[in-house]
Amino acid sequence: MTFTAGIIHLSQSEVLRPGLTETEFRLGNVGSKAEIFFSNPPHISYKLSHRTIEEKEFNVIAFFENGMLIRVTLARPVKPGETWAKYDRQMELSWAKETKMWVELLLNHCLPMQLPWGTLDCNFDPRSGSGSLTLSYHISKRQTSSRN
Please, what sign has the CA dihedral across residues 28, 30, 16, 8? Predict the structure, then answer.
C-alpha cells in the first residue's frame, strides 16, 4: 500500500488508485470476484473480505460514483461467527485508535492528511458503530461527466 500516493495493492497486478474506473476494477481478477456491497445508481460499492495489506487484515470496500472510484474504506474484518449480537463498541473504538496510530507511525504524520489525490483519515463513525481507515479521492467534474 502506498498511502501517500493513494494506492492500495489488492494483488501483485491489481491496485485501487486515484482515477480507477469501475470497469477497470471489475475486469481484474480480484475485482471480478468482489461482492456488491451497496447499489443505488449512480453509486455502487464493492466489498473484498479479508484482504491482507501491509501485513494487516482488512475488509476493503471500494466506492464508485458515475463509474469512478471516489473512496476506499479499510475496516476491521468480521471474524467467523461474529454477529451484531456480539457487537462491542469499545473494541471498535480501540481498533480505530490502534489503526490510526499504526498509519501515523508508518507515515510519520498525523491524520487526517490532505494529499494531492485526496484525504487519508482514520476514525470511528458512531452512526455505523465502526472504525475505518478511509482514502477519499478528489474527482473532477470533468471525470464524472465523461463517465455518464
Answer: negative
Measured from the Cβ of residue 21, the count of other Cβ atoms closer than 10 Å reads 15
Show the cell assigned to 133: 481507515
* Cα end-to-end span (Å), the chain: 30
Predicted TM-score (pTM) of this structure: 0.88
Place of cell 483519515: 121
Q: Strand order of the sheet with strand 43-53?
A: 35-40, 43-53, 56-65, 68-75, 130-137, 118-125, 113-115
With cell 487484515, the residue in question is 57
Q: Is 49 left (phi over 0), alpha (psi -120 to 50) or beta?
A: beta
- Report the length, in residues, of the chain: 148
Give the other-Cβ count within 10 Å of 68's Cβ: 20
Q: What's CA 71's distance to the chain center, in Å? A: 6
pLDDT by residue (tens digit) across 38-85? 999 999 999 998 898 888 899 999 999 999 999 999 999 887 788 888
